[in-house]
Amino acid sequence: MSIHRTHAIVLRTRKVRESSKIVVFFTNKCGKISAIAKGGFKPKSKFGSSLELFTRSSIIFYKKENRDLHTLSHSETLEAYQGIKDDVFKLAYASVAGEMVERLLPAEEPNEALFGLLASVLSEISLAERSKLEVILSSYELKTLYLVGYGPELAECVRCGKKVEEDAWFGLLSGGVLCADCRNKDLNALSISKEALDLLRDCRRESIKKIRKTYSSDRVSREAADILNAFFRAQISEGAKVRSLDFLERIRDTSFG
């Protein structure tokens, strides 16, 4: 058994026994881990509010070799992202960000760049107006896909290498844009407007903060978001259920106003 101290973001919790909880953390040094917080459900738990969903904390845990479940010893809040916890719509967008980490990253595989990106998007979601949430999440989704090796080709046709600008298609199984001549080679290809393709290219190139300042939710951002969400699902398994996305898509039509 070894002791580890690291920064962590709470992705998910569930109650076990009478007063304890299992917490899934994404950490900056140890990747995605699960740990039991003994007494974590007690009213006066020593962990306080540091184990609330999407809280960024400093934790100490005992790692059990050859085990998937470790033991949490200490947790102290660094950033609560209170704006997310006070707004169900923001919580829905944050939940997609968290589920991407859970679904795309293997357990205990460190990825400090992705940890920083998740912390950044939670901060932006917490502070942003609702009209900015869609573009913030799209920027995060695209950057995450590139960090874990699933990033789509956005400049040239993935089949023939032709530069694509007008009359573009997005191949969910091919892994990026297709020209008009090659679109029939991917039965799951979706038509994408030049404006939505340009937005995706900006989402890849620019920081999340700059995307938030530059764009607001509109027809183009919705089109780009729908394509990215479909592509995310395809990377997991064609037609896979992603509960956070399913919930977000049910409520998002009323999330801007």
- % residues in beta strands: 15-25%
CATH topology of the largest domain: de novo design (two linked rop proteins)
Residue stretches low in confidence (pLDDT < 50, at least 5 long) are none
Number of strands: 8
Count the helices. How many?
A: 8
Order of helices and strands: EEEEEHHHHEEEHHHH
Q: Level of helix content?
A: 25-40%
The level-1 CATH class of the largest domain? Mainly Alpha
Which architecture name of the largest domain does CATH use? Up-down Bundle
* Main sheet makeup: 5 strands, mixed, barrel
Strand order of the largest sheet: 1-2-3-5-4
Walk me through the structure.
This protein has helices at residues 82-85, 88-104, 112-127, 133-147, 194-205, 208-214, 219-236, 243-251; strands at residues 2-16, 20-27, 31-37, 56-63, 69-79, 168-171, 176-178, 190-192. With 257 residues, it is α+β, with helices and mostly antiparallel strands. The protein has two domains: 2-80, OB fold (Dihydrolipoamide Acetyltransferase, E2P) (Beta Barrel); 130-254, de novo design (two linked rop proteins). The chain has a five-stranded mixed β-barrel. Strands 7-6-8 form a three-stranded antiparallel beta sheet. Helix 3 (112-127) packs antiparallel against helix 4 (133-147) and helix 4 (133-147) packs parallel to helix 7. 38% of the residues are buried.
